[in-house]
Every structure is written in structure tokens, then in C-alpha cells.
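Q: Could you fold this chain for me?
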Amino acid sequence: MLLLLSLPGRWLRVFVIASIAWGVSMQSLAVDETAALASASALVLPKVAAVSEDEASTLYLHNRKIVTFRASLLGDTAADRMKLAQLALATALKTSQGRLITITPLGDSVRFEMDGATLFYLVAGDFRGPRPASLLDAASRDVLARLQTAVAENKELNDPGSLLKGLGYCVLASLVTYLLMRGILWGRVQVTQRVRRALAQRPAGSISGNLLATSVDHVLAATRMSTAALSWILGLLLFDAWATFMLHQFAYTRPWGERSTAWLFDVMKDFALATVGAVPGLITAMLIFVIARVVSNVSKAVLDKIERGEMQMGWLDADTAVPTRRLASVVIWLFALAMAYPYLPGANSEAFKGLTVLAGLMLSLGASGMVGQALSGLSLMFSRSIRVGEYLKVGDIEGTVVTMGLFTTKVHTGMGEEVSLPNNLIFAQPIRNFSRLVKDGRFMLHTAVTIGYSTPWRQVHALLLEAADRTAGVAKEPAPYVVQTALSDFYVEYRLCAQSNMFAPGRRIEAMNQLHANVLDVFNEHGVQIMSPHYMADTDAPQVVAPGAWASQPKPTVDRSADV
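A: Sure. Below is the predicted structure, expressed as C-alpha cells.
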């Protein structure tokens, strides 16, 4: 006891003492059962755990299954035969000394004896199979081996030396398990610290160092999660090995330990066989994906040439080559996935089938909007309604198209804004394209003014054309023109239409700003009043800016000279 109390760590002492107490309790339970079997006043059958109706005829000795009786013999049912075998076994364990177990074939049956005393008979009907009679000899030898093991364990239950030996092994196994657990935790901490130091020692100027600097937290989190998962797996395996070893040290619990060992080996065997069996399917699936990648690369190379104008192919052109490349890639990989699916490990399992059904249901319920967006984007691309670089107006949004995707189209308005328009919204509205009819990627310039009926329309035409002529970004050919678009109640609406040229700013809003400035200057020079936004009544003087005030600057409202 002093040795136990001197062990390092409070939890280790509790762990070892609990192991000893557990072993003693199991052994005392087995001794009590053996004493009940060997009672001199009456023959008491061994205590049998509650079993199902199908296993009611199974003979046990100290938790070890001996044999299952299934057939009736000489009027005795399988349950009666099991009870008689228990009674004979208890009697033999009480009276026999050498405990020599033998079997004697008797035609269609086999007799089991201990030191000459009959224990039970086995017949061919006790075994399942296509030809039970042929299994009788081999099955009898298996029953003999189990019975010899159970009788030897019955003798071990009454041996104090075996108990002390088992307790010693339990203490040693608990100490080793505790040290290994501490080693696993220590290794987990060491791995995490080494990764942290390696990340900290990366040179900041290198490309790898800059990449790691942006994801240090993610790398550390991934390391902690990986080491924690590995520690749990190793800890559970170590605990299973410890528990199995503890069960093997005592005769009463040894059958449980053997079943635990068999379960672990069965799991490892099934895992190894499944891994080996999945190799041909994985190789086939890999070949399918390699072929899909080659086909995808070939289609990409061809469509890239069409996009650059190096090749022509039917209805495909530079505008439709991009969406066609995306569609072809999606179709190829979906086809490859469908072909490789049966060869993937676990593809035929119920869990995998249920997962695929759940994924399909989620996609069908939650991806309807995304599918609509993608179809609208493809429709816009293949219909060539809009192209990258064109200036257009959709609803209240006006600007230059910078990117076109399956789901959204991005437009720069020229006022420091980037607007992402859903493709289904664009597809459902009229599109005003200012660049489609203009060569070299330029755009249309047009503006409207409202002038009173007292001003001759020919003069207004001349003034607007003069403003267009003064604007450097307006093309001379084709020549600008003016149209009257409305005869309203108080004024006439005139619209100037022109095309930009190579001198125009890249953004249409800047070119429109120059054109509007020249329109204002020309109309002010000639004293023509612009009746916008609404004409209400004639004034004594026309509402124009006098020539001397065109370049006047606003006066400061606060005197800042005192702050200097």
C-alpha cells in the first residue's frame, strides 16, 4: 500500500487502486459462483445470464460458452438437455480429481465424459449447415477445446496465486498505460509548439513567408485540430488495449476480453480487406478522371483559340467561346463523376446512397435560384445581348460591363461605383446598349435640352451641333445630328446624338461631362434660355449666365486669414 501511495500523480494512484479493486471484485464474484457449484448439501447449477429465447439451450461455464443444444434427444428438449448437462458438469467438478475430459463417437452422436462420468451427448441436429452430420466430428473437437479451457479456468478461480499474479499485471499495465497517455499528450503539445516556431522563423521577405503570414492562424488551428484528433484516436486504442489486457488477467472475465480482442481484430481485418478491395475501383475511377482532364484540356485549348480569333468553328465566336468552355468543362466532369461513382469505395452502401439522396434533395430545394441565375447568365452570353467592355443601361443602372459571370454581371458606373447585377434581373429587363452600333469599342453620346417655343428650332439645332463640334471626344464621322423628341406644353425637347472617337475619355460619364459643359457655354453665348427642369412663366430677362461671370469663383463664407 505504501508503494501505491508513493506513485507519481493523484490520478495515477486512483487509477491503479480502482483497477485492483475491480479485479478483486471480479475474482470474488467468480469464487462465489464456484462455491455455489461445489456446494455439498445440494447441486446448484451455475448462474447463467439472461439470454434470448433462441439461446435458452446454450451451456455456459463462468461466462464461457460451451455448446448450444438445438435438437431433442430421447424425449428431452434442447432446454432439458442443457439443464442436465449443467447438473452433470457441476457434479463432475465437485467429485473429479484429474478432470480428464474425453469424447467418444457413438455413430450419430458423440459422448463427452470427465474422468469417466458422462457430461452430455451431441448429435448432428445440434449444428446448423447444409450437411450437419459431416460437421459433427469437427464441431465436437471445438466443443472439447472450449470445455477444457473452461475447466482449467474453474481451477484457476480457486488459486490465490493466480489472483495475485493477475493483480500484479493489472498494476503494471495501468502504470504503463498512464505513462503512454502522458506521452501522447506531451507529443501533442510538442508538435503544436514546433509548428508555431517553424512558422515564426519563416523569412518575412520570401514568397512562402508572405503566404504563411496571411494564414498563420488557420495553419495553427488546423494543426491543433489534427493533433487533437490523432490524440483521441491513439488514446481510445490505448484504452481498449488496457481494458482488454485487464479482462484477460482473471478467469471469470477472460471470455469478455477474448470477445473484445476478436472484435478489434475483426474491425481491423474488415478495414484492411475493404482498403485492399477498394484499390481496383480507385484505380478505375482515377483513370476516368485522368481521361476527363485530358478531354477538358483539349476542349479548353480549342475554345481558347476561337476566343483569340485564331480558329473559326460554326456558330462559335469570341463571345460564345467563354461560356461554351465553361459548359463543356462542367458537362465533362459531371459525366466523369457519374461514370466513376460505382467504383468509389462505399458507393453501394446504404449510407452513401442516403447521402446522395439527401444532397440531391438539398440541391433541388435550395439551388433553384442559383440554377435560374446560371441559366440567365448563359442565355445572355449565347444571345450576345451584352459583352464585356460595352456601355449599357439596365433599369436605373448605367455603366461599362467589366465582367460577365454565370450568376452576376459587374458594371462600373464611372462615379466610383461597381454594381453587381443578378443575371436574371438583366435578362428580365430591356437593355439599352450604347456601344453595339459603334466601331472600335466606343460608345454613343446623346443629351437632351428643352427650349421654349419662341426660339427657332433651326437655331437650337445649330447651337447643339456647335457644342458637339467643340467637344474633342465627339466623332466627325458619322456626323452628329439633332432631333425633336417631344412638343411639350411649355417647351420643345431636342436631343443631340453623336458617337465618341479615339480622343474621348475611356469612361462615358467623363465624355458626357465635356459635352454638357460645351452645351451650356454655347447657349449662354447666344442668350438662349434652357427651359429645364420646368418652364413656369416668362421672365423680364432670359435665364442665362452673362459672359463676364462664366469663370467667376465662389467667395469664401468664412475669413481664414486669421488662421494663417
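A (continued): The longest strand covers residues 444-452.
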